[in-house]
Amino acid sequence: MCSQLVQAGDAPPPSTDERRLRAFQQRIDRDEKIEVGDWMPDQYRKSLVRQISQHAHSEIIGMFPERNWLTRAPSLHRKAILLAKIQDEAGHGLYLYSVTETLGVRRDDLIDDLHAGRAKYSSIFNYPALTWADIGAIGWLVDGAAIVNQISLCKTSYGPAARAMVRICKEESFHQRQGYDILWQLTRGSEAQRDMAQDAVNRWWWPALMMLGPRDSNSTHGEQSMKWKIKRHGNDEIRRKFLDQTVPQLEALGLTAPDPELRYDAKAERYRCGAIDWDEFQRVISGHGQCNKQRLKAARQARESQAWVREAAAAYEGKRNTGRSARRNGGRL
Ligand code: FAQ
């Protein structure tokens, strides 16, 4: 009937899908949060699952470079701090997997994808932590880069993700400070300790800049993710903010960047770095970095060797549920 009312030359009325999409985009444009159970385009849901699960995997895999140093930390105090930091990363992974579950996926399936090499995790965790100074560089540079990105994600459009990110950022800022403090102490120590700090910065500097993602011109998801406010800033802008925040800290440490072209552009009031080796980034994210195989192997082994913990927790939960239903039925099972 409706189609008979359309005059020749008029645009056809929008379909239900188009109307829903338009209303969804209007909610995003008004900065409303999208909550569990709200209608969302399938592609929005998929993009969130992709980005948030990659982040969750990164937090979990990110524990491996640091764990080697738990038994070699230079003091009990440093060991306790590192232990707390690594436990925080595990917690971040768990919050983020929980967020993906609100989007209708199963955590086990995501972890299967990671272990089978079908899912990505951050490029940065495919580099080895060779000395104690690397623990400082990871905290300062890696957590530092992660925070700049994640502060922006506190305003992401999906409510559960935005709220998880607020808590994660608070913990990441402690991580960044502990990393800086390690390097601060080393740069005020012996010549060998100072050299160790410089060597760690030399090795982690470029990977930290790369971990913020490809240039905007090569970012596959950036444009649509920004339209949906899944991401609030482009990769290049986040990288610029990270550089602006980090170079003065580098100078305060008395260390240098392995970048002869790094300079302050007074006119633009920002730092500019030399060319990033995007071939290296592509090699690492396609599975050919220094530690990709080692990291996935360790993740698979951890899942297998800890299966008994999950089984025990499930058995305990089963017992509690049986007890609860028996109490509800007046003691009858
Ligand atoms: N590594 O289109 P875009 C941490 C992929 S947490 C590997 O620009 P997007 C805490 C990307 O997936 C660190 N792959 O992608 C910690 C896509 O491939 P796909 C993680 C990367 O999503 C510290 C393709 O390239 N943080 O460090 C990387 O719009 C210390 C095209 O890229 C998060 O995950 C990379 N670095 O922007 C833990 C935050 N970059 O999926 C332990 C949330 C890009 O089509 C110790 N994520 N790719 O196959 C995000 O904000 C975004 O996903 C970006 C990438 C900004 C990372």
Strand content: under 5%
Q: Could you give the order of the helices and strands?
A: HHHHHHHHHHHEEHHH
Mean pLDDT equals 95
- Name the structural class: mainly alpha
Distance between the termini: 60 Å
Return residue spans where pLDDT drops below 50 for at least 5 consecutive residues.
Answer: 1-6
Strand order in space, largest sheet: 1-2
State the helix count: 14
Radius of gyration: 24 Å
What hetero molecules are bound to the protein chains?
Answer: Phenylacetyl coenzyme A
- Shape from CA axes? globular
The portion of residues assigned to helices is 55-70%
Sheet with the most strands, sense and barrel status: 2 strands, antiparallel
Beta strand count: 2
Structure write-up:
The protein is mostly helical. It has 14 helices and two strands. A two-stranded antiparallel ribbon has the order 1-2. Helix 3 (42-61) packs antiparallel against helix 5 (76-101), helix 7 (132-153) packs antiparallel against helix 8 (159-187) and helix 7 runs parallel beside helix 9 (191-210). It starts with a helix and ends in a 5-residue tail after the last helix. Mean pLDDT is 95; it is low at 1-6. The site of Phenylacetyl coenzyme A has 28 residues, from helix 3, helix 7 and helix 10.
Task: Tag the structure with descriptive keywords.
about 0% strand; about 325 residues; two-stranded antiparallel ribbon; disordered N terminus; mainly alpha; binds Phenylacetyl coenzyme A
SSE topology sketch:
Layout (H helix, E strand, L loop, with lengths): L1 H4 L10 H14 L12 H20 L1 H5 L8 H26 L5 H9 L16 H22 L5 H29 L3 H20 L11 H6 L7 H19 L9 E3 L4 E3 L5 H11 L3 H14 L1 H22 L5
Antiparallel strand pairs: 1-2
Helix pairs in contact: 3-5, 5-8, 7-8, 7-9, 7-11
Phenylacetyl coenzyme A (FAQ) binds next to helix 3, helix 7 and helix 10.
